[in-house]
Amino acid sequence: MSLSNPTHAPAHISAPVPAARGDGGALVLSALAAVFWGTNFEATRLALIDLPPWTAAAGRFVLAAAAIMLWLALTKGISWRVLRRNLFAYAALGVIGVAGFNAALFLGMETSSPVTAALIMGTSPLTTNLLDSILLRRLPSLLAVVGMVISLFGVALTVGAFSGAHFASGDILILLGSIAWALYTIGCRRWVRDATPLETSAWTMLVGTLALALAALRLETPIATFAHAPAIAWASVVWMALVGSVLAYIFWQVGIARRGPGATSVMFNLVPVSALVVAAIFGRTPDAMQVAGVAVAIFGILLASGKLPGLHARS
């Protein structure tokens, strides 16, 4: 979840995408994108065992930015006119939505869990809608508010807040990161002019990468750390960069192009489910309360977005 917000991407794409056989193939690819995003949280946990947070975040995005810029150059070409027109917007959005969000995620994951982090980030579409309503000075729909409350209740169940546990400091950081991501999404819609989702993703990621790299060089020793990092740390960073960022983005865009943004956005609910399954694969089997919390949170997200049968959120 580090490229332009998948739940609010426009219904067209700007670059060739892999072929898919009708809606069925596009459905599979968009589901895989959500699964890949869900794996990022466990990959972050593994990377942080041997890498400090700023170094891990910067390493991920150095690779991801290089890959997405190469994809842009090969499929669409670099438009300097688009960059000049949106230079200040890209700079602000890159710092807020890429550097800010990922700094909060990697720092927060030092004390949070992958499942909790995925659930908090899973509510980002609702956070975006609520913030958008506040900025537009209009009341959000009743279903949006109720859905947000139910989703937060599900997050609380997952972290064990009703059995004596407390939100970790990392959970709060990740929540702040979710707000930064919501501001990024709103900013992309309001500030960026005449640019495709791929261009916006590539340029804001490049800016965010520069900010993360500067912070890592100032606060840590990333080059020396990566030189002595074990294979699992390298594999985790490469996975997050190429599979959990670039490939997931391309697959998601296939879904939007062939199935539409509304039908595709429902698949975003697979992100916390994927995080739950991956955590179990790595030996941390969730308890019944965590599973229930994930189910409740997803129900709240579906309710707020009007995706439940027979219910439609009011505008």
Automatic annotation (TrEMBL):
<keyword id="KW-0812">Transmembrane</keyword>
<feature type="domain" description="EamA">
    <location>
        <begin position="27"/>
        <end position="159"/>
    </location>
</feature>
<feature type="transmembrane region" description="Helical">
    <location>
        <begin position="54"/>
        <end position="75"/>
    </location>
</feature>
<feature type="transmembrane region" description="Helical">
    <location>
        <begin position="115"/>
        <end position="135"/>
    </location>
</feature>
<feature type="transmembrane region" description="Helical">
    <location>
        <begin position="200"/>
        <end position="219"/>
    </location>
</feature>
<feature type="domain" description="EamA">
    <location>
        <begin position="169"/>
        <end position="305"/>
    </location>
</feature>
<feature type="transmembrane region" description="Helical">
    <location>
        <begin position="231"/>
        <end position="252"/>
    </location>
</feature>
<dbReference type="InterPro" id="IPR050638">
    <property type="entry name" value="AA-Vitamin_Transporters"/>
</dbReference>
<protein>
    <submittedName>
        <fullName>EamA/RhaT family transporter</fullName>
    </submittedName>
</protein>
<feature type="transmembrane region" description="Helical">
    <location>
        <begin position="168"/>
        <end position="188"/>
    </location>
</feature>
<comment type="similarity">
    <text>Belongs to the EamA transporter family.</text>
</comment>
<feature type="transmembrane region" description="Helical">
    <location>
        <begin position="264"/>
        <end position="282"/>
    </location>
</feature>
<feature type="transmembrane region" description="Helical">
    <location>
        <begin position="87"/>
        <end position="109"/>
    </location>
</feature>
<keyword id="KW-1133">Transmembrane helix</keyword>
<dbReference type="InterPro" id="IPR000620">
    <property type="entry name" value="EamA_dom"/>
</dbReference>
<feature type="transmembrane region" description="Helical">
    <location>
        <begin position="288"/>
        <end position="306"/>
    </location>
</feature>
<keyword id="KW-0472">Membrane</keyword>
<dbReference type="Pfam" id="PF00892">
    <property type="entry name" value="EamA"/>
</dbReference>
<feature type="transmembrane region" description="Helical">
    <location>
        <begin position="142"/>
        <end position="162"/>
    </location>
</feature>
<dbReference type="InterPro" id="IPR037185">
    <property type="entry name" value="EmrE-like"/>
</dbReference>
